[in-house]
Specification:
The protein is mainly β and 588 residues long. It has seven helices and 38 strands. The strands form ten sheets. Strands 10, 11, 13, 14 and 15 form a five-stranded antiparallel beta sheet that branches. Strands 28, 29, 31, 32 and 33 form a five-stranded antiparallel beta sheet that branches. A five-stranded antiparallel beta sheet has the order 37-36-35-34-38. The longest helix has 26 residues.
Length: 588
């Protein structure tokens, strides 16, 4: 009886070493007897989402000299794509059943993650997909990403996974302020198999908290001196940890330094200390690779150690490892521009003088500092009010008796406040005391209770909106007259009560006015208007003197009571202090 012809059984199929664009395929043929021994194999493949037919990728026709092939490597596969493989055995009786397996290639190496923003305790990272994966997006699911982070500041730090299976931006929390980190991005396919990882080439740095306490140390009418208050910044490492950190950081610097140097300047130069040097024009690229912005502050301070247009590796390392502030940036409330103060001595505490301020004005200042790696946050606003301007004139004496003196205050605007200070030279311990606080237009100050024959000094200070005094004016020195019986002259402050312009004055009004004569002698006179007339097209006033006083005793400029004087309109208008109306009729 002839033996029945049998088809070969389905072979065993194994897929291994799956990569981004390749995979190893191994198979083993099976048979039950010599009649079903396979002679060769047929391997076919297609993408799982494709609607096209299987494509023959391998066949091994029978040969009397060769054994059937059992292994093949597939190339030119699409990344992150699922494929279906099937294989069948063929002998002289025909083809057997298929053995089917699926596999998914790994995603392509992701692009380096990009920093979107940083705070004192977090980093926001943008995941960048590969262009190669994007071409095959319709054929496969988008890859997901696992994110690892390592603290560069810790010499023995390990990778920590901070995000898994992410497609979009990643927010990493719980970091230390002012710390430096390297990220690692690993793409994962649908089967959870990771592709080749990509580390971030630049380091990422969190911002610094402004741990100091800035304050206003001194303020004037046109300046303010700020103390940055950063002496309280503590280095959170003991001596042993600090030395380990320096050694570790130096290795990182040396690595990046040489990479930038080889790319930008293949002909590496060695200085007299047998260490490599870098041309200054490569410093922006170096700082970028170190993960910090090549700002003008960093470039200027780093370039200070350059010699003949190049800088040594040790100078860069020393600059990078110094965590003290490079410079302070000050912004103020009334300006869009910022003031940069370089900390040339690299001290922890420094101050700055801000010039060009306006008197009696409230300002707000905010400060941040820049280090070689990162920048601090803006500190809380510091407010101060500048002092008033120095009075341009000293007090002027209007009238003096044995019991009182009347002072005129000049040089202040209507809203400016001031105070009058008094010192009695005859006191055992002479001391300036405030005797009056006021504001314009009350320009006449009456001070009482003086003893005859004493010498007194008066000066004035402006007051800002918070009541703080500015610089004082020059002092007025006067001698109170001796005892000469009761004073029967008119009381100027009670007699003249109306503030008005010359246009409101009519015949019959009484007017108090002052004028400078004989150089610096101030003459104050009380007059009554007898006539208003025009002469040579100029309006003038004819007045009768009621009372006269000069700031200098025994002055020849004294006018007699009852004396008639004339003043032109323009000159008269500038001298009017106060008036007493004869009546309120015919007033404007």
């Amino acid at each position: 009886m002839p033996q029945k012809q049998r088809l070969p059984p389905a072979p065993n199929l194994t897929i291994s070493n799956v990569g981004t664009s390749s995979a190893d395929v191994t198979w083993v043929g099976r048979h039950h007897s010599e009649n079903d021994t396979p002679l060769f194999f047929c391997l076919e493949m297609r993408e799982s989402l494709s609607k096209e037919d299987f494509v023959l990728v391998f066949t091994d026709p029978p040969s009397s000299d060769l054994e059937p092939k059992m292994r093949i490597k597939l190339y030119d596969l699409a990344s992150n794509t699922t494929y279906i493989l099937r294989i069948k055995s063929i002998n002289e009786n025909g083809a057997g059943r298929f053995t089917t397996e699926t596999f998914t290639t790994t995603p392509t190496q992701p692009l380096a993650p990009r920093l979107l923003s940083a705070t004192t305790s977090s980093l926001q990272i943008r995941l960048c997909t590969s262009n190669h994966d994007a071409k095959h997006k319709s054929m496969t699911s988008s890859p997901k990403y696992n994110i690892d982070i390592r603290n560069v500041d810790a010499p023995n730090s390990e990778w920590i996974t901070v995000a898994k299976n992410r497609l979009s931006d990643v927010q990493i929390h719980g970091l230390t302020d002012g710390s430096s980190h390297i990220l690692r991005c690993r793409a994962v396919n649908a089967n959870g198999i990771e592709g080749v990882c990509r580390e971030s080439s630049p380091m990422f740095h969190t911002l610094l908290s402004y741990n100091g306490r800035p304050s206003v140390q001194e303020v004037g009418s046109d300046f303010a001196r700020l103390s940055f208050g950063t002496s309280a910044i503590a280095h959170k490492r003991n001596i042993e940890e600090y030395h380990q950190w320096i050694q570790h950081e130096s290795k990182e610097i040396h690595k990046v330094f040489k990479e930038v140097l080889i790319k930008g300047n293949p002909s590496m130069e060695i200085n007299e200390n047998h260490e490599p040097t870098m041309p200054v024009h490569l410093l922006p690229q170096l700082l970028t690779c170190l993960g910090t912005k090549p700002s003008s502050i960093r470039l200027e301070t780093l370039s200070q150690d350059q010699t003949d247009g190049s800088i040594s590796l040790s100078a860069v390392t020393r600059w990078w490892n110094d965590t003290s502030p490079l410079a302070y940036t000050i912004r103020r409330s009334d300006s869009n521009e910022s003031l940069v103060c370089y900390n040339s001595s690299r001290r922890d505490d420094d101050d700055a003088m801000i010039q060009g301020l306006h008197p009696n004005t409230k300002y707000s200042f905010s400060v941040r500092y820049t280090t070689s790696r990162t920048t601090s946050l803006w500190c809380d606003d510091i407010t101060c009010t500048t002092l008033p301007r120095t009075p341009p004139f000293r007090p002027a004496l209007v009238r003096i008796t044995h019991q009182m003196c009347l002072l005129k205050i000049n040089g202040f605007d209507a809203k400016e406040r001031y105070r009058v200070e008094h010192l009695s030279v005859s006191d055992k311990r002479p001391q300036w005391r405030t005797v009056f606080n006021g504001a314009m237009p009350k320009c006449l100050v009456k001070l009482n209770n003086f003893n005859g024959g004493e010498i007194h000094k008066f000066r004035i200070r402006g007051l800002n909106s918070e009541g703080s005094p500015g610089k004082c004016s020059g002092a007025l020195t006067i001698t109170i007259a001796g005892e000469r019986g009761p004073d029967t002259s008119i009381d100027i402050l009670k007699e003249f009560t109306i503030d008005c312009t010359a246009d409101d004055i009519i015949v019959g009004d009484r007017v108090l006015l002052d004028e400078y004569v004989e150089g610096n002698t101030l003459r104050t006179i009380a007059v009554q208007i007898n006539a208003i007339f025009t002469r040579n097209e100029t309006q003038s006033y004819r007045m009768e003197v009621l009372w006269c006083h000069c700031s200098r005793l025994n002055s020849k400029a004294m006018l007699k009571v009852g004396q008639l004087v004339e003043r032109p309109m323009d000159d008269f208008a500038e001298r009017v202090l106060r008036t007493k109306w004869a009546s309120e009729d015919d007033r404007r």
